[in-house]
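User: Sequence in, structure out. Go.
Assistant: Echoing your sequence, followed by the structure tokens.
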Amino acid sequence: MSVENDITHWSVVIEPTLQRLLRKLGIYFIPIGGMVEYHGRRRTLYSEIGILLDKIYETHHEIWAVITDYGQLWPYSNSSSALRKIH
């Protein structure tokens, strides 16, 4: 859906437990601000899709393959390696 609608960034509002689980799967988002009370304690996070998917490709190729249909929906670019060093 992101590719079909030219969406370049994802944003989520999640609890810390889910953020930790996503990191274990190689899915890294950048925090925006602190914790807020929204149906429990949550944090807003975002990521540019290419950076997020490249990181997943490098750390958990099997998850990247499912999300991108083996690169058919979003090929690996390795163009964002400098930005990924932050995480």
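User: And one key feature?
Assistant: Strands lie at 9-14, 30-37, 41-48.
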